Amino acid sequence: MIDIKRTWTYLSDSKKRPILLRTFRIWQRRPHQVRPITADIHQCCSCGTSYQGNYCPRCGQSASIGRFSFKNAFLLFLDVWGIGNRSMFRTIRDLILRPGHMIHDYLHGMQSAYFPPFKMFFLLTALSFVVEHGIHLTATPSAPSAPVKVSANTSDVNEIIIQKAAEASDFLYRLSEANPAIFALTMLAFFSIPLYLLFRHSPRLTDLRYAEFAVALVYTANAYTIFSIVGDITHESLIQFFALVMFVITLKQFSGCTAARTTAKVLAAAVITIIVFIALIAIALIIAYVIYT
User: Quick one: which of 179, 245, 185 has its CA closest to 217?
Assistant: First the structure.
């Protein structure tokens, strides 16, 4: 537990503040400490097996099972959506306080201590959608935008291309509204390619595979979404801006690059992604022009 009074004493004292900061940085780099195995002999309430340790070797039930409390009931309620376990809260905490170091630990084998990245991504994306748009029990879905009308006898190729572009834009909009998590994950995968090429040779990353970087980027997006949700709830633009900063901080801790170098790589990847996206649109328009001429 955090001693709030002692922490405030260190924060208010200019001489003790560097000690607190150094302690925090040491904690950031320290991997999650697994609870030591107890020496007591337990008898499993489910299968009756006598054993020594924290979990039953026969059925896997925890040795700390006891009477129900409000906390237990709340965790069981959350478990309906697959988030009623301690690793979810630990993952949120570490994504806020030590995101890059946590991702590094996860990729190096400490996977049982943290919530799965893709499962967390879908849950946070769904929560972000609810927070952003609200819950409307009686609302009817909005009608799609009307397509651009073109006369049946027209020979104007430009109008045909404009209509096809409008239809494609409307399709992408409806796709993002109907499947926000899938759409966001697709955009993230598209953005991950230039990021991987720029970050694969970093001080802290050796022999990094694309699949590993993709997992790291999903966790990075989760850290961004957490702060974005808080910003939407509080309507604080500063927190929403910090969500972008958190994206850079996470990659900085994960890669070991300096803040300036990490920012430059992220901006370069964004520029490359935009250029490629514009090039793909131009190719699509050229193909449409060739087909309809």
Answer: 185
Beta strands in the chain (DSSP E): 41-43, 50-52
User: What is the mean predicted confidence (pLDDT) over 58-65?
Assistant: 85
Among 68, 40, 43, residue whose Cα is nearest residue 56: 43
Residues 6+ apart with CB under 8 A from 202: 208, 255, 256, 257
Kindly report, residue by residue over 114-168, the tens digit of the pLDDT.
999 998 998 888 888 888 766 544 444 455 455 545 444 445 656 766 776 677 6
Give which of 158, 165, 193 is closest to 273, Cα–Cα. Answer: 193
Q: How many CA atoms lie within 13 A of 250 on its CB side?
A: 27
pTM for the full predicted model:
0.77
Rounded distance between C-alpha atoms, residue 286 and residue 284, angstroms: 5
Rounded-to-10 torsion of CA 102, 213, 194, 181: -80
Q: What is the Cα–Cα distance from 181 to 186, expressed in whole angstroms?
A: 9
Q: Other C-beta atoms within 10 Å of 265: how many?
A: 21
CA distances for 113 relative to 28, 50, 116, 253, angstroms: 15, 26, 9, 19
State how far the Cα of 73 lies from the Cα of 84, in Å rounded to an integer: 10
pLDDT digits (tens, 9 = 90+) for 225-254: 999 899 888 888 888 888 889 999 999 999
User: 285 with 161: CB under 8 angstroms?
Assistant: yes
Closest CA to 197 of 184, 185, 215, 209: 209
Q: Give the contacts of 120 (CB within 8 A, at least 6 positions apart).
A: 88, 91, 219, 222
What is the CA 270 to chain-centroid distance, rounded?
A: 18
* Phi/psi-derived region of residue 105, left when phi > 0, alpha when psi is between -120 and 50, beta in every other case: alpha
